[in-house]
Amino acid sequence: TSFVVGFAIEEQERAQSTTGDPRRYDLEARDAAVGEGAPLVRAAARVPGDADAQFARQLEIILTGIATCFAGPNARA
Description:
This is TetR/AcrR family transcriptional regulator C-terminal domain-containing protein. This protein is mainly α.
């Protein structure tokens, strides 16, 4: 899926950036670029966690949504 590919690319970019340019993912610079109007986006960058666990949880959310669309009386064909 696009999610899987995008997640993998982002993780590779983060790993490579920390060795090449550690300022690339600087939270203060990111906050300034995002602005005050997006507090949840700003907060999301500070959520600690294991990348593998985050991937598994986010994929579960996507798959649950897909399963919901194809189950029950409101199933979409």
